[in-house]
Design goal:
The structure holds two protein chains of two kinds. Chain A is mainly α. Chain A contains 38 helices and six strands. Helices cover 21% and strands 38% of the residues of chain B. Chain B starts with a strand and ends with a strand. The chains are: A mainly alpha, B alpha+beta. Chain B: InterPro entries: Adaptor_comp_med_subunit, AP2_Mu_C_sf, AP2_Mu_N, Clathrin_mu, Clathrin_mu_CS, Longin-like_dom_sf, MHD, Mu2_C.
Chain lengths: 739, 464
């Protein structure tokens, strides 16, 4: 792909497209068009040949038509005026005798994402809805949704909705499903398509005629239907029974979800359903399609959370095979850890032990942590296995085992003795921060039972200067002080040395503070130290908090067969929260222009923004159409309105700075990478009245100065000064954190 | 719904990109590019290169998945609140992108279907083929998905819409046009009316893959067969077919009357753990009578898919013996035994015996076939072209090791095996396939039928 030469390519293609000789030869003409599409795919800006491509659309060659329409759908938003020229051809094609041409033209016309196209597509869509070829009807039905999407939030066209509802009775199954999809999008704000009794029954009867995508979709829509009576409910369940055994895992999962939700008041039905899908789920888990297998495993884990014994007899199905991809192995290990019971614990542990010596360090550690999970119920066996693993003297194994021990001792205090006996000697094999922290914590808390604990800690104290992780140093301080309480004679000297080092020589603020704090604490007296440091050594009751046993099926039924089990509940919550914020933006009423307006500062950040000094009159809003291109154009056309120099120590921190700026709704347009000299960044922002602020940051490390130049689209000194003060505060804050 | 579909080669170059929805890409993925450790795509001298339309989603996937340093942790990746579902075929990546909370199984199934359809059109999915059939793929993507919703995806039905040769609209005959209309309005979505063949023929392939995990002591840790019955039909009209196999439940049901028949056939019937059928099979009939009746699509399709775990015929037994002689030498002896009728021949047998990383030299002696030490793969590969049933063959190897001070013990990966046998390891047998066509005058006897059994190895491993 030519990186900079796109202008030349465009020029050349333009010439070729205009060449009458090429235009006369159908194959050559099509080849040139193909090249345009190929460059477009690779990411070159091909909007330059739009005019020529529009001309090429007037042809009888269907392939050429398809290619040109694809091109137009991509670039129409950039060239709305030129795209209007193509509408004529498209409209003509919409009344072509060939249904395929009609469908194609209609589909393309609806996919032109540009303002103003609505008035042209409305009539063809209405005609399409009544077309005799179902192919065209399918396209037209989805076209309604596309049209609504273009309109944004304009009012719903009642007549159109009624038309769509009546098309639910169409002969063609795909038209029916498309109708549902389309209605769902059009009526999104009113809660989506309404599934009442006649519609639900109609859909249920058509189910077997649909293809797998349709079935999955309809099952999803049926979730919304509330059967009136118990009798009706069971009729529906009977009718859908065969879909639990469908060929397609997606349909099986969809049907399962529907069963679980409909039968939410009948726990025995739910359990029954889960027993019945066991077979299909296991089949999916051992299928050759690995990605599907992954999805199925995620759902198996979900089921295991409420029915721990559900897959216990099939534990061998979840043994990992050597050649399976990493992600499946990791899931299987988790499943094994969940389904363990008295009968299979021996075999499962045996298997997990085998994984601990796997070549992939990642997988080996996952297996060790899984043994740690099993250890909460079968402590003795597991501790024995883990202790044996320490004998291998391998770095990644030892660190994982020690971390497991740390958690285990906290949750199952009965194993403390065994753990303490296993610990001596493993300090030689631990290099990473997590492992060291775990070991030091164990030595500090249970030091009185480990004879050589002070000597191990002494080694750490000796080498504290070369220690790279501040967290380890903090852990070391706490541990040594704890050990000092139980074994003062052996620890006093080195505690003194460590405190001295931390207070006098350490550069990390947090470590220094911790050191000072302990030093002052010791000055107050030993009783006070005891009161503060000697917390309980373990608390098994916390295990319950961490791992709430047996969640009811209803708590996750609505998440079944979505992305929630795949990502995990916590991760999905963060993802969807951000998405929610975005939706909020999208739902705000759009004025004639593109600009979105309104308070867009997320709740959590509001305070920070309000605290900023002098920002009173100015409200910055995130601008959605402030593109890099637009920025460049504006930047060049404006004069510098204000220049300023701020003090700045050391190198720039692009990541932190960008985040901080985002909080106050200043967009980072471009930025050089960390460590570049001189370091530059371009920023842009917009306030609620629509004026733009553009800024350049220039950092010259040798002078320790940050030069700021600001350009402003309107000459209002008031808002300009408040924008500068906002910018100043942010840069100042980041600078403070650093130094 | 799917927001967009991208196909990449192994270098991360985009071969195909089709965006169906505006919500993917735009600024959301920007931050992903920012936060990744990769250098920025633009340099200081040109700080404001306009981002081409929606390239960000495309780039984000390349940086975070294809070029990621660690192993891929999940086939579903979330980058800047956009989910990327990917499937890899040889060195081609197919990624479906969405912002919605979709169901993962469905998206993957769709990607598989996409691969199947492409394979049906141009064979193997490779970079070469994708580049050559670039127009065709765009055509397919146009028909299969609309606005991100899956539409018609049956290869047979699609053939009507895809005009790779570019038929001129005027030249298209009236007949073809009416075909499109009737095909898409017909009650049976998977078969069009008016199909005619001079020779009515059908081919049945029973394709099984047998999976095994065996302990060094010869104990079966897990074994299952996943099988497919693939039918290729070239039948005229709207034929009604009925398929029968040696399913335990059916045989027992029929055998109720005559007791000695049960005992005769009881041995040969198999227990199917679960099975699923092509959309064309009438499930209600299967549930009530356990009979499989259907009107088949024209051409090739997968009639059923099943899985068995009981009474599997394991075609080969692998008996490993590994002895460590001192610190620098290993002796390996592997015996394979074929366990099926002597009259049958297994083919393409390949045994991979892993060797430690610090192997310096290997000497191999084998009775049959060819064996070679492949240093790049850290394995001895033993290939045998053909082997009859109830035979035995062995290989012995001396592996010399370099002395290392690496304390890491060798993990001893399992010995894996590949083969192909001409029978079904599950024991499944096709008992009959009857064809009825009430309207046209050909009967069951006039149809030429072919049945073939192929058993292949799936993951067939023996630990050592």
């Amino acid at each position: 792909m030519p990186y900079l030469g796109s202008e030349d390519v465009v020029k050349e293609l333009k010439k070729a497209l205009c060449n009458p000789h090429i235009q006369a030869d159908r194959l050559r003409y099509r080849n040139v068009i193909q090249r345009v599409i190929r460059h477009m795919t690779q990411g070159l800006d091909m909007s330059g040949v739009f005019m020529e491509m529009v001309k090429a659309s007037a042809t009888v060659d269907i392939v050429q038509k398809k290619l040109v329409y694809l091109y137009m759908c991509t670039y129409a938003p950039l060239k709305p005026d030129l795209a209007l020229l193509a509408i004529n051809t498209l409209c003509k094609d919409c009344s072509d005798p060939n249904p395929m041409v009609r469908g194609l033209a209609l589909r393309s016309m609806c996919s032109l994402r540009m303002p103003g196209v609505q008035e042209y597509i409305q009539q063809p869509i209405l005609n399409g809805l009544r077309d005799k070829a179902s192919y065209v009807r399918r396209v037209a039905v989805l076209g309604c949704a596309k049209m609504h999407n273009l309109h944004g939030d304009s009012e719903v066209d009642g007549a159109l909705v009624n038309e769509l509802y009546s098309l639910l009775r169409d002969q063609d199954p795909i038209v029916v499903v498309n109708c549902l999809r389309s209605l769902e999008e059009i009526l999104k704000q009113e809660g989506g398509v309404v599934i009442n009794k006649p519609i639900a029954h109609h859909l249920l009867n058509r189910m077997s005629k649909l293809d797998q995508w349709g079935q999955a979709e309809v099952l999803n829509f049926l979730l919304r239907y509330q059967p009136r009576s118990e009798e009706e409910l069971f009729d529906i369940l009977n009718l859908l029974d065969s879909f639990l055994k469908s060929n397609s895992p997606g349909v099986v999962m969809g049907a399962t979800k529907l069963f679980l939700i409909l039968a939410k008041k009948f726990p025995h039905v739910q359990t029954d359903v889960l027993v019945r899908v066991k077979g299909p789920l296991l089949a999916a888990c051992s299928s050759e399609s690995r990605e599907l297998c992954f999805a199925a495993l995620c759902h198996v884990r979900q089921i295991l959370h409420s029915l721990p014994g559900h897959f216990s007899s099939h534990y061998k199905k979840f043994f990992c095979s050597y050649s399976e991809p990493h992600y499946i192995k990791l899931q299987k290990v988790e499943v094994l850890c969940d389904l363990v019971n008295d009968e299979n614990v021996q075999q499962v542990l045996e298997e997990l032990r085998g994984y601990c010596t796997d070549v992939s360090a990642d997988f080996a550690q996952a297996a060790i942590f899984a043994i740690g999970g099993v250890a909460r119920t079968y402590t003795d066996q597991c501790v024995q296995i883990l202790t044996e693993l320490l004998g291998l003297h391998q770095e990644h194994i030892t660190t994982a085992v020690v971390q497991t021990f740390r958690d285990l001792v906290w949750l199952c205090p009965q194993c403390t003795e065994a753990v303490c006996q296993a610990l001596p000697g493993c300090e030689e094999n631990i290099q990473d921060s997590e492992g060291k922290q775990a070991l030091i914590w164990l030595l500090g808390v249970h030091g009185e039972r480990i004879p050589n604990a002070p000597y191990v800690l002494e080694d750490f104290v000796e080498n504290v200067k070369s220690e790279t992780f501040p967290a380890v140093k903090m852990e070391l301080l706490t541990a040594l002080l704890r050990l000092f309480l139980s074994r003062p004679a052996e620890c006093q000297d080195m505690l003194g040395r460590l405190l001295y080092y931390c207070i006098e020589e350490e550069k990390d603020m947090a470590v220094r503070d911790r050191g000072l704090f302990y030093y002052r604490l010791l000055l107050v007296g030993i009783d006070e130290v005891k009161r503060i440091l000697c917390s309980p050594k373990s608390d098994p009751s916390l295990g319950l908090l961490e791992d709430p046993a047996e969640r009811p099926v209803n708590s996750w039924a609505s998440d079944f067969n979505t992305l929630v089990p795949v990502y995990g509940k916590a991760r999905w919550a963060t993802i969807s929260k951000c998405q929610g914020a975005e939706h909020h933006v999208l739902e705000l009423p759009n004025t004639a222009s593109f600009a979105t307006s309104g308070p867009l500062i997320p709740e959590a950040n509001k305070e920070t923004v309000q605290e900023l000094p002098e920002s009173g009159a100015l409200t910055l809003v995130p601008s959605r159409h402030l593109t890099a291109e637009y920025f460049e154009k504006t930047w060049l056309s404006l004069e510098v309105a204000h220049q300023q120099v701020l003090p700045w120590q050391g190198a720039a921190q692009p990541g932190a700075l960008q985040m901080a700026l985002q909080v106050v709704n200043i967009q980072t347009m471009a930025m050089s990478r960390a460590g570049a000299q001189p370091w530059k960044a371009y920023l842009g922002a917009q306030d609620n009245t629509g004026c733009l602020f553009l800024a350049e940051l220039l950092l010259e490390p040798e002078n320790s100065e940050m030069h700021i130049s600001v350009k402003h689209s309107e000459a209002q000194t008031e808002t300009l000064t408040s924008f500068i003060s906002v910018l100043e505060t942010v840069i100042g804050a980041i600078g403070d954190i650093k130094s | 719904m799917i927001g967009g579909l991208f196909i990449y080669n192994h270098k991360g170059e985009v071969l195909i990109s089709r965006v169906y929805r505006d919500d993917i890409g735009s600024q959301a993925a920007d931050s992903a590019v920012f936060s990744s450790s990769e250098p920025f795509p633009w340099t200081l001298s040109r700080p404001c290169v306009p981002f081409p339309l929606r390239r960000n989603a495309v780039d984000a996937f390349r940086v975070n998945v294809i070029h990621a340093r660690q192993q891929v942790r999940s086939p579903v990746t979330n980058i800047a609140r956009t989910s990327f579902f990917h499937v890899k075929r040889s060195n081609i990546w197919l990624a479906a992108v969405t912002k919605q909370n979709v169901n993962a199984a469905m998206v993957f199934e769709f990607l598989y279907k996409m691969c199947d359809v492409m394979a049906a059109y141009f064979g193997k999915i490779s970079e070469e083929n994708i580049k050559n059939n670039f127009v065709l793929i765009y055509e397919l993507l146009d028909e299969i998905l609309d606005f991100g919703y899956p539409q018609n995806s049956e290869t047979g039905a699609l053939k009507t819409f895809i005009t790779q040769q570019g038929i001129k609209s005027q030249h298209q005959t009236k007949e073809e046009q009416s075909q499109i209309t009737s095909q898409v309005t017909g009650q049976i979505g998977w078969r069009r009316e008016g199909i005619k063949y001079r020779r009515n023929e059908l081919f049945l392939d029973v394709l099984e893959s047998v999976n095994l995990l065996m302990s060094p002591q010869g104990q079966v840790l897990s074994a299952h067969v996943s099988g497919r019955v693939v039918m290729k039909s070239y039948l005229s009209g709207m034929p009604e077919c009925k398929f029968g196999m040696n399913d335990k439940i059916v045989i027992e049901k029929q055998g109720k009357g005559t007791a000695d028949e049960t005992s005769k056939s009881g041995k040969q019937s198999i227990a199917i753990d679960d099975c699923t059928f092509h959309q064309c099979v009438r499930l209600s009939k299967f549930d009530s009578e356990r009979s499989i009746s259907f009107i088949p699509p024209d051409g090739e399709f997968e009639l059923m898919r099943y899985r068995t775990t009981k009474d599997i015929i394991l075609p080969f037994r692998v008996i490993p013996l590994v002895r460590e002689v001192g610190r620098t030498k290993l002796e390996v002896k592997v015996v394979i035994k074929s366990n099926f009728k002597p009259s049958l021949l297994a083919q393409k047998i390949e045994v991979r015996i892993p060797t430690p990383l610090n192997t310096s030299g290997v000497q191999v002696i084998c009775m049959k076939g060819k064996a070679k030490y492949k240093a790049s793969e850290n394995a001895i590969v033993w290939k045998i072209k053909r082997m009859a049933g109830m035979k035995e063959s062995q290989i012995s190897a001396e592996i010399e090791l370099l002395p290392t001070n690496d304390k890491k013990k060798w993990a001893r990966p399992p010995i894996s095996m590949n083969f192909e046998v001409p029978f079904a390891p599950s024991g499944l047998k096709v008992r009959y396939l009857k064809v009825f066509e009430p309207k046209l005058n050909y009967s069951d006897h006039d149809v030429i039928k072919w049945v073939r059994y192929i058993g292949r190895s799936g993951i067939y491993e023996t630990r050592c």
